[in-house]
Amino acid sequence: MDEDPEALRRLDALEQRIAELEGRGTAEPGSGDEETCAPSPPPRDEDPFWALTLLKEQVPTPGAVVFAGSVDVGAGHLEYQWGRPTGHLLDVDWAEHAESVAALGHPLRLAILRRLVDGEHTVAQLVDELDLASTGVAYHHLSALQAGGWVSSPRRGSWAIPPSRVVPLLAIITALEKG
């Protein structure tokens, strides 16, 4: 399958702009240091599919998949966007993602991630909050989440979701909703 060179060029330019924006850090609201990085979405009643409309304006057929988020969670304010052209997504080996997907396939791991979205936790806090039988149970599931790239240990005995993984995780949870 041939990929559209113009679409790849535009996607590369978009990713470069995002990388530059992410490198600037975030400003405190009201500090006067905020920068506008994208147009405001139109009111919902005007175009309920504003994101899709904007994507179709930017990416020619056969299209692309993009997910983005601007969220306030325990780790602070996070903004993230990622996208890939349709051709790329259909050409890659999906099996390469099995470990990351499998790590999310246990209810206790999802409960741990839900706690970590609120911010860094120690293993003792997770054991207490989730009423786990032992720290060994917590470490077993944290190890699987770490192998899948969903958590890291910034300090001995404490765990967090890397900021670059929060919006992807929330996007997956959103995609799993039945609506």
The total strand number stands at 5
Kindly give the count of domains.
Answer: 2
DSSP helix count? 8
Q: What is the helix/strand order?
A: HHEEHHHEHHEEH
Quaternary structure of the protein: single chain
- State the distance separating the first and last CA atoms: 32 Å
Shape: elongated
Biggest sheet overview: 3 strands, antiparallel
Structural class: alpha+beta
Cα-atom Rg, whole angstroms?
19 Å
Widest beta sheet: strand line-up = 3-5-4
Helix proportion range: 40-55%
β content, as a range?
15-25%
Average pLDDT figure: 85
GO molecular function, one term: DNA-binding transcription factor activity
Domain HTH arsR-type: 99-178
Pfam families: HTH_20 (PF12840)
InterPro entries: ArsR-like_HTH (IPR011991), HTH_ArsR_DNA-bd_dom (IPR001845), WH-like_DNA-bd_sf (IPR036388), WH_DNA-bd_sf (IPR036390)
Could you characterize the architecture of this molecule?
It holds the Pfam family HTH_20. This is ArsR family transcriptional regulator. Residues 21-47 are annotated as: Disordered. The chain has 179 residues and is of the alpha+beta class. It folds into two domains: 5-92, no CATH class; 95-176, Winged helix-like DNA-binding domain superfamily/Winged helix DNA-binding domain (Arc Repressor Mutant, subunit A), CATH 1.10.10.10. Helix content is 47%, strand content 16%. It has a three-stranded antiparallel beta sheet. Strands 1-2 form a two-stranded antiparallel ribbon. Helix 6 crosses helix 7 (135-147). The longest helix has 19 residues, at 5-23.
